[in-house]
Structures are given as C-alpha cells and as structure tokens.
Amino acid sequence: MSIWIEEDAKVLVQGITGKQGMFHADKMVEYGTKIVGGCTPGKGGQTVELQGKPFPVWHGMIEAIEATDADATVIYVPPPFAAEAIMEAADAFDTVKGEGVIVCITEGIPTLDMVKAVAYVENRPGVRLIGPNCPGIITPGATGGAKIGIMPGHIHAKGRIGIVSKSGTLTYEAVAQTMSIDEGQSTCIGIGGDPVNGTGFIDCLAAFQADPQTEAIIMIGEIGGNAEQEAAAWAADNVTKPIVGFVAGATAPPGKRMGHAGAIISGGKGTAEEKFEAFRAAGIACAMDPSELGKVLLESLKAVGLR
Amino acid sequence: MNIHEYQGKSLLRANNVAVLEGVHCTSVEQALSAYDSLGSKVVAVKSQIHAGGRGKGTLYHPETREHVMDGGVKIAFSRDEVESYATNILGNILVTIQTGDEGKLVSNLYVEAGCDIAHEYYLALLVDRDNKSVLIMASTEGGMDIEDVAHNTPELIHKVVVDSNAGLLGFQKRDLGMALGLQGMALRSFGKMLSNMYTMFIQEDCAMVEINPLVRTGSDEIVALDSKISFDENAEFRHKNWDDLRDLSEEEDVEIRAKETGLSYVKLDGNIGCLVNGAGLAMATMDVIKLYGGEPANFLDVGGGADEEQVKTAFSIILEDPNVKGILVNIFGGIMRCDIIARGVIAATEALSLEVPLVVRLAGTNVDEGKAILAASTLNIHAADDLAEGAQKIVALIGGDE
Question: Please, where are the H alpha helices in B224-307?
Fold first, then answer.
C-alpha cells in the first residue's frame, strides 16, 4: 500500500508537448512511471517520443481518460492556463470515472485563479488536487514505482516512512535523511508553497495514519499561515504513528516574501517559532536542523520499538 | 506588489468607490496649487511611502539625520501650513514602525480635501488561506491598529467569506453593514461601495485592499479616507498597467535585478552569504547558519534549473553586500545537476576573483562528478557533506578573521 498513488498508477501529462512537460515526462518514464500519454489542446492525434517509445497525445482530458482509464494527471502548463487545466482535469475525472488525482507542478499561478480552481475541485469529491507550485508525489516501488512530478527519482527507495512537505528541495533533503538511517519511503508528497492550494497537511496525515505501509511520518513546514499549527493539533488527537517535524524560516524577517508566495510572516503571525511550539505541544519530535531529521527519526522509531 | 495611497485612490475612484478630492504632488509649489484648486479650508498633507504607520512616523533630514517633524500625515488649516508641512515632508526621510530605522525617502505627497466625519470604520478584503476564498473584514474600530483590535476585542471584527462561484451576495453586504451599526441611506451606500470594491478586487487581481479608516460622513455617505492596496505578483502577465504603478524606488535595487535574472533574493543583516536551490531549503540554510552561531546575509534561491551564468550572477549579487565575509553554497540537485553547479561555482569564483572563504555542499544528481570537479580545482573551496557540516565550516572560517 501507499497513499493515493499506487506503484503502477496510470498517469497522463497535461502540457506533454511543451519543453518542461516533455523533459519531465521522459524522466518519469525512465523512472518506471506508467505514463499513458498526454494532452495538449490543438495537438491531438500526434505522438511524442519518450525514452525511445511513442506516446499518444489528445486534445482534451475527457477523451484521454476515456481512452486510457488514467488514475492521475500531472500538469506542466504555463501559469496563465494552469488553473483552467486543473479544472478541465477535475471535470474529466469526475465525468468519466468519478475519481482521479491531479498533480499541478506549475509555479506562479494567480491566487484568485487558484481560489476558483480549488472550489471547482472541492465540488467534485472523488477528485484530489496536489499543488500547485510543488515537486509532486512519488510512491517508490521495489523496482521502479510511480514518480509524478519533478523530484529526482534515484534518491528514493520503497519503505515505511511517509513524507509531507511544503518545499521541494527540503523534501529531497528529508528523503536523503531517511536513507541515511536505512529507511525507505511509502509515499512522499510536496503540497506546495502557495497560499491557496489543494491537498493540505491534514489530508496527508490522515492518509498516512490509515495506510498500513506507513509506520512513521516526516512533516516539513515553513513560515506563513497556520496550516502547520492546525495539522499539529489534529495529529495530537488522530495520529498514533510517530511524527518528526521541521519548519523552515526561523531567521526570515517579517513582511518579506521568501521565494514562495505563501512564505511571508504577516502581522507577526505564521512564525517558525509558533509552528515549532505547536509541533512540540502535539508530541511531534522536532529537528532544529534538517541534517538531523534522520537522527531524530531513528530515536522516534526506537522509542516505539520499530528499530 | 504595493502601490501608493494616491494610486489606490485613483483606482477606487475609477471603480465608483467614493474617495475625497485629492492631488498627487512632487513639489511644494504643486502642493500649494493643489490647496488652491481643492477649495477646501482644511486639507490633509500625506506622505506617500509604501510602509504603514505614516501618521505616527517621524521625519528626518536625509544627510544629517536631524529631526525635522513629528508625523508624516498632517492636517493643514491654512495655505501657510500646507507650505510648511510640504517643505518638511518632501525630500526628507520618514521613519515609521514598518520602515525600520533607515526609513524611506519621501518623494511623493498627496494633498486631499477634508471632510465631515461622523464615524470611522475599518475595512479589508484579502485572500484567506484557511478558507481558500476572498475574506472581507470590517470593524467599528476604524483608525486603530487592527492587530490590537483583533487581539483585545475580537468580537468587534466582523467577517464575511465570499463563495467564489456565487460572488458577494446581497445578504452578506446587508449583514456586514448592520453589524457595523449602519442603517438607511448609510447601509445602502455601504452595500454599493462593497460591491464595487469586491469587483475591483477580482478584476485587478488584488492581494489585499485595506481601508483604514473608512468613514461615514455627516450626510451618511461612505467614503474611503485611506487606501492600502497590493496586487498578486503572479497575475502581472494580465495587467500591463502595473508597470506604470510600480515605484521602483520603494524596492531594493538588487532584489529587482535578481528577479530579472530569475533569482529570488532578499537582503538580510548578517555576514554569511548563501546560494541555495529551492525556497524551503534556502530558508533552512539560513536557519542552520544561525543555529551554529553565524548570521545569514541573504536569502537566495537560484530556482530549479539554474545555469552557469545564473550562478555567476548570484555570486556577484551576494558579493555586492560589503558585509559578506564568507559564502555557503547548498545545492540538492534534482533536475539541476551537481556537475553543472560545480562548474558554475568555479567559473564565478575565477571571474569575480573571490577573496572570501567559500564552502560548497552538494547532494543529489551527479554529486560525485560535482565533488570531483571541485576537488580538482586549485581554488580555495571547502567541501561539506551535509548542511550542518557546511554551516559549521563557514562559521568557523569567518570566525577566524575576527
């Protein structure tokens, strides 16, 4: 088991004929992800070559899902069109099969476009949105697996640690830390650093808690908003598996946007200190330095007899 | 992206939200002719800078730092007072609780007609990340610091969450207006104003619109007396007019140049420069430098696909800061390959004849090739295997200089 994405999930790529889309589709095929084709409006009927093999392209998502029975789609569409791509995918999954996972990698989508797109997705209860502005989701397999996004596949291995993070490269850091203590990952999810996004920390914690393969969780937050505090309070009541946490941005000055649109301390709220405190109050073991995540995870696993 | 009060008011006026007559000025002469043309006995003379707290700020001479005047927003009762306030404001430095000690040079002034105020309210529209919707906040406690109101008397803040599909509904405007104690003509005026402001918020891709105070006049009109508007930078591609509204003097020159080359840079006060890929990892790198006793000089995210040229630009931007005594490079290669970064680091070090200590931590894709390239170089580059080691090394290296 894993969460939301099985090792052999069938995946479409929206924006597959674009530079980014094609580059990453090729990397996903190389990793072993079961890519079944893609969509680019106006280029239906063409094929693209990934790892030396041809893959079909459709105009729209409904025909693509009808033809392939895809489980998920990953979006590499430029910001002006990305929210519409999310809504097209949500409509198509809802219409054709009543369920599906949408992973949106695109960075820089206008916030009000996302307000609309998230409401649209939430009206279709079988459809899940991950992102935008995120590295994606990966469920490593014994061989290959499902890598849906832009993360470097080769640093992962199948295992029992679930990872959820707002940040891309910090997720890779967390993956490397699990590997440093000989642990693999069940599923790793980057939920993205934008103020308005789809899947949140609590959705991920609930799914990891319910997943038999996952035995411990790493949760990585950053400054801005209070999603981490809410997730910590929820975890205190609902998660029995050990959680290890880190929050980036302790040294960030108030009022300055630190790269991610959501990473800004406003009105003295959303500081790293506040979030670390909420983590500790919920019994989450904190690393003050991401290079210590492995060490803290090992201690947490030992404490419950998992090592 | 923030805009000035005078720009916000012209936007509000264009969207049929009532504001007072006012004139944007850049000289004392203009301020005086504005006073003459407004025909109002009492006018407000308002410093235009992006930071808040202008009214309670203090003006200083830009070179001597001598105290010039208390208050960056003044009420003038005569032509002479307009002249003296405008003279004291323009060309001087305004320090407020939001500007930091260095303050902001005031080059723009807004001279606005007075009005008959019956009550002051607070109003804000923003995107609320919890509800993933536009949130409207209003309070009877206008003119005050809203954070204090939220902290001391949260029951006096009224909220409406707008359903993005349905838009702002009639009952929501009515309920919010009634919660503010409005009735009759004032309630109708409030409802109309709120509709227009919400439409503007959506059409202009605002991130926040804050009106503090919003006032009810003696004749029950609802008027925006102040305006603080910011736009969502992600939507810049569909608002060509933003270029004209942008006041580059309000932004750090080096941050603008960084943005133009695809880098995300924020200057800080420390002495260890950092160059990192990914916003989260860049923040974490700063945190770890601090954890091991150093002070980061900047936030710098080179993004996911930096090339040799961008790495070079990043180095030169970091080195422009005279406080920088050492640099820590922290790259977790995903799409970005460590060998390319290593070549970029060497090229930049040579081109800029780097003199401060440099620690490089590489991990991820092609890490072995990257490390080999660095090891083969004759340059003085210190390698580190993880972030903690990198931070400890750079802190120790610059510590030796002091």
Answer: 242-245, 253-260, 279-291
Question: Quick check: B334 and A288 CB within 8 A?
Answer: no
Tens-digit pLDDT profile for residues A208-267: 999 999 999 999 999 998 999 999 999 999 999 999 999 999 999 887 888 887 888 777
Residue written as token pair 């002070």: B295
Distance between CA atoms of residues A119 and A270, nearest Å: 24
- Whether residue B127 and residue A193 make contact (CB cut-off 8 A), yes or no, is no
> What is the rounded distance in angstroms from the CA atom of residue B226 to the CA atom of residue B5?
7
Helix H or strand E segment including A167: none
ipTM above 0.85, yes or no: yes
Q: Do B283 and A222 touch (CB under 8 A)?
A: yes
Q: How far apart are CA B180 and CA B374, in angstroms?
A: 66
A260 an active-site residue? yes
Q: Report the 10 Å Cβ neighbour count for B269.
A: 12
Which chain B residues contact residue A110 at CB under 8 A? 205, 232, 234-235, 238
Contact A289 B332 (CB under 8 A): no
In 3D, which of A103, A205, A225, A223 has the Cα closest to residue A163?
Answer: A205
Surface of A (202-221) touching B: CB under 8 A = 220
pTM above 0.90, yes or no: yes
DSSP letter assigned to residue B144:
S
Cα A91 versus chain centre, distance: 21
* Nearest residue in B to A173, CA atom: B332
pLDDT tens string B159-191: 999 999 999 999 999 999 999 999 999 999 999
Which one, of B307, B191, B382, B252, lies nearest residue A253 by Cα? B252
